[in-house]
Amino acid sequence: MWKPPQKIRWTTGKGVVPDAATLRSSRLFAPLRVGRLTLETRTWVPAMVPWRADEQGFVTDNVLDWYGRFAKGRPAAIVVEATGIRDVPSGPLLRVGHDRFIPGLEKLVGRVRDESQGHTRLFIQLIDFLAIRRRPARDKFLNRFLVITPAHRENLDLPETTPDPDVRALLGGLDEDALKEVLTPREWQDLTTGARERVTDTHLPHIRDLPETLPDLFAKAALRTQQAGFDGVELHYAHAYTMASFLSATNTRSDGFGGTAKNRVKLPLEVFHKVRKTVEQDFVVGARILADEIVDGGSTAQDVQWFALEFARAGMDFLSLSRGGKFDDAKQPKMGDAAYPYTGQSGYECMPQFLSDEFGPFGRNFAATKAIRTALKKAGHHMPIVAAGGIHNFETAEGALQDEVADIIGTARQSLADPDWIEKLAAGQNDQIRTCEYTNYCEGLDQKHKQVTCKLWDRSELDKDGVALSVDGKRRLIAPAWDAG
Ligand SMILES: Cc1cc2nc3c(=O)[nH]c(=O)nc-3n(C[C@H](O)[C@H](O)[C@H](O)COP(=O)(O)O)c2cc1C
Ligand code: SF4
């Protein structure tokens, strides 16, 4: 992963330890309305892909154990990982593109209800993503993937009648610099990082038709999650995926769904309206968007504030704000690997690590989040805002709420490090909390598509009865139980 050049080492701590009276009067432990639901507190576990579904995208026992473990710590809400809305194979990532996925998801809801004794509300993140290929070997790309065009012949000073195999043979003999001159920038990128579809590829019928197909796909998926018993959905409009790409200022589609901010928000709004119309009124429908894309040419702060206003005007129930996580600045993958959107600077901003710059990894998204929330309040909207990024103790969480940064506190890695941290706080057992160190060991596992665990607990009590281990047999899959005494 990209790291800031300063490489200042930041350490986490427990912060100011609250006494019982402080906890009682805190915002963190105060209830909040989200749509027609009430969250018991402002604590929220954002979506985290743990690589525990099976190859067909079904819920497995390991998925149940993973969410059950978070639920045992009774956060007010958990958002289940990015779950694919299409009925297409996508490896061990959860899917909800067909009714056959409903029974597994129903079990998942049941498990969370049981473990939290009904205290945790359960949402699920719905995602659409476009195709991406692994970085190809040069000869494979030139001989199989590259479509030979008249431009190649022209750049090589060849007659128009030169057969494709001869053009390919000539391209194969060029050195890197010469080949780069002959290929288009897009072809060069496909060769050096692997081909990746973009929402601007409107010459491809399935991409051109996304505005027609996506509202229905999202709505049907949302309906299935309602049937499975979830409390609501989070539409994934963030990071490197389809909907975020529509919102991005890099979206130059000329069909009314790209270019101006007004055109870019059109499809995300249409998807929301279709989902809203399809599910019951008390089913919560929110979205996750980027407060800042952190890429050159990305949407401005004004654009994003305006998107938030549009979503609030449309009646969205909550907005969760993330940061970065784009393909645009991803590192070149190794040959045979696919690009990963969290390897560049934008990826760092999404999941900041303990080696940081003078701003540090804690609350890097607060300023942008607060600006969006302030714009909403000014316009008279009270749509709850979820903040995330480096929040790891009561002091930072409560500080963000008191400072009007957000209404809800998302803690992804802190909850992974210690799923009981909120319960420990509430019980006055602050000293027992395992505080995330922002090593990004977990994120490294995610990047390698390995089952995600935390370095603070994945080697402890391995030989205890009933401990489920990772595929490599070296790590426990869920955090040890906490004996509350
Ligand atoms: C292993 C892992 C998987 C993640 N998967 C998702 C995901 O499926 N959807 C999403 O919106 N964010 C995902 N994220 C980002 C987190 O939700 C969160 O925004 C980010 O980690 C910053 O918050 P934190 O500092 O509290 O961890 C993931 C993060 C991690 C560490
Ligand atoms: S491995 Fe554990 S300590 Fe390290 S960043 Fe992930 S959750 Fe935090």
How do the helices and strands line up, and which of them pair or pack?
Elements lengths: L7 E2 L10 H6 L6 E3 L2 E3 L3 E3 L15 H12 L4 E8 L17 H14 L5 E7 L10 H8 L4 H6 L8 H9 L3 H7 L2 H9 L11 H4 L1 H19 L3 E6 L4 H6 L13 H4 L1 H13 L5 E9 L8 H14 L4 E5 L21 H6 L4 E2 L9 H13 L6 E3 L6 H9 L5 E3 L2 H5 L3 H6 L14 H7 L38
Parallel strand pairs: 4-5, 4-12, 5-6, 6-7, 7-8, 8-9, 9-11, 11-12
Antiparallel strand pairs: 1-10, 2-3
Helix pairs in contact: 2-3, 3-10, 4-6, 10-13, 14-16
The structure holds flavin mononucleotide and iron/sulfur cluster.
Number of structural units classed as domains: 2
Number of strands: 12
Q: Biggest β-sheet, characterized? A: 8 strands, parallel, barrel
* CATH topology tier name of the largest domain: TIM Barrel
Helical stretch count?
Answer: 20
**Sheet/helix structural class:** alpha/beta
Classified in CATH, the superfamily of the largest domain is Aldolase class I
Poorly predicted runs are none
What gross morphology would you assign?
Answer: globular
